[in-house]
Amino acid sequence: MAWYLNPETNQLEEQDETTQGVDLSGSRGAGGQSTSSAAPSNAATQTTSGNFTDINKYIALNQPQSEALGQRVASGIDENVTTANTSIDQGQQEFNDALTAANPGMSQAEIKKLASDPAKLTEFVKDPTNVERFTTTGAGNYSGPNAFSDIGSYADLIKNVGTAAKAPEQIKNEGGRQELIKDVYSDPSRAKAGMLGLDSALVKQSPGAMKPVEDSAKAAGDLNQRVTDIQNNANTAITAQKEAVQGRAGDIQNAFLGETGAYNRLKSGIDKRVANLSTEATKYRDEAKNYLDKDWLRSQGIISDFTPPTPSGFVDGYVMPSETRIDPSKVNISAKALGQLGITKNQYVDLLNKWASPPERVNALDPSWQGVDFSSPDYVSFGSPTSAGINRGNVATDQEYETLSALSTLFGDQIDSGFINTPDQAGSYKTDLTDFNYQDLLNYLSNPTYLGPNVTSRR
User: What is the pLDDT of residue 117?
Assistant: First the structure.
């Protein structure tokens, strides 16, 4: 609303704004009401009949319009602040989306589960997408933003913040206030310097007009600090994300290729079983050997030599032939050693008894039947774990072959696929290192004239 001094009445009167060449019919303020606008800069100093119009009177008369203009200016600042905050919010979202997209492809829990569950690992590598995700995570390459300023909308954000954030300085000087007032004119291009100057004075001199402007300017002044805080937080988040990406790569390395990782557990597990099976097979082979060794049997008291007294009536000096006695209570051969021999404990004791006292062979003059050697190659042969074929290839299970294949898919030549390379032999190992011809020995002990197919000599 413009005012001028009427020379006829010597009173300030409302002026038709169109005569000033400035369109004040609408502005960016609420309700579309026109802003307060001053008359030409010399209106306040016009004189009629020697009378001077006081500027204070002018300001007092324009008080309602001044406060309305102050509200309009405050609203303009608020609008700029809202635009800036919207840009900041959108920028934050854009940054967070970019940072999230740079997340490690796999979580620690998933890595741990795959490394500890061979069946799950085998199923996992069947999906090429999983393999790509695993490989990307294992590479540990961070692909996200390195600063908040990397977002595509950063330039617009800074422009909008800069526009709004200068309000605290603008309200401190005449030029700044005029710029703020001009911005709320319906057509800022037609604003005249004198009108802007008087409107600025009206706002500045009116506490009711200046207070909302100062409040809005204070909120605008917080924008730069908000951006600074966001940038600092972004740097912290970027550092954490880089560490997470590299950390996941380290997790994969440790979980799968580390000293106690899945690959080394697979190899050490197979080798340990090969060693244990070989040791156990050797142990029971050696026990079987002992139970076929007459000297060892004597040392254990299982068999003993006995010479019965010479009956009366025999020639003086005649000595009865010695006999071999068996003590079955001392036969403590294990089931696994019997398994090496392929017989039961009763069958074993029966062999001892047949060997010791075959009635059809008792010949005091020729006790050669007692020379039969259970451990003779005619009846038994012994092998070693190696010659029996206990090795990685046949000790490994089908699942272990699948696990090694899955590891090769994920790690390529870091995995020795030749560690086990005979999948058709998986689980086919044998721990029987003793080949005992029980039936041949039994037939011989039962029938002195029997020569079995494996018997080449008599001892």
Answer: 97
What is the C-alpha separation between 452 and 379, in angstroms, rounded?
Answer: 9
Give Cα separations from 339 to 177, 287, 303 (angstroms).
106, 11, 22
Instruction: Please state, as a whole number, how many other Cβ atoms lie within 10 Å of the Cβ of residue 47.
Output: 11
Burial of 424 (0-12, 13-18, 19+ CB in 10 A): exposed
Amino acid at 33: Q
Closest by alpha carbon to 38, among 4, 76, 74, 75?
A: 4
Helices (H) and strands (E) in the chain, counts: 19, 8
Residue 373, SS3?
coil
- Report the distance separating Cα 127 and Cα 426, nearest Å: 25
Any alpha helices (H) in 328-397, and if so which ranges? 335-341, 345-356, 385-388, 392-395
Mean pLDDT in each 10-residue stretch from start to end of the chain (459 residues)?
45 42 34 38 38 56 68 84 96 96 93 97 97 96 96 96 88 77 69 66 66 82 94 97 96 96 97 97 96 92 83 73 84 96 95 70 43 79 92 96 97 94 95 93 71 46
Contacts of 94 (CB under 8 A, 6+ apart): 151, 152, 153
What is the Cβ-side half-sphere exposure of residue 109, based on CA atoms within 13 angstroms?
0
Q: What angle do CA 167, 172, 174 make, to 5 degrees?
A: 100
Q: Which amino acid is at 261?
A: G
Please list, in sequence order, all residues whose beta carbon lies within 8 angstroms of the beta carbon of residue 382, skipping any fewer than 6 positions away: 285, 288, 289, 433, 434, 435
Query: In angstroms, rounded to a whole number, what is the distance separating the alpha carbons of residues 171 and 168?
Result: 6
pTM (global) more than 0.70: no
Residue 67 CB-half CA count within 13 A: 6
Q: Are 115 and 261 in contact (CB under 8 A)?
A: yes
Residue of 44, 45, 23, 43 lying closest to 32 (CA atoms): 23
Q: In the numeric block, which tokens belong to residue 61?
A: 């008369």
- Ordered alpha helix ranges (H), 184-301: 193-205, 207-221, 223-252, 262-290, 294-299
Q: Which region holds residue 316: left if phi is over 0, alpha if psi is between -120 and 50, else beta?
A: beta
β-pairing verdict for 380-382 and 323-326: unpaired
271, 264, 266, 291: which is closest to 385 by C-alpha? 271
pLDDT in the model for residue 404: 97
Q: Give Cα 19 to chain centroid, integer Å.
A: 75
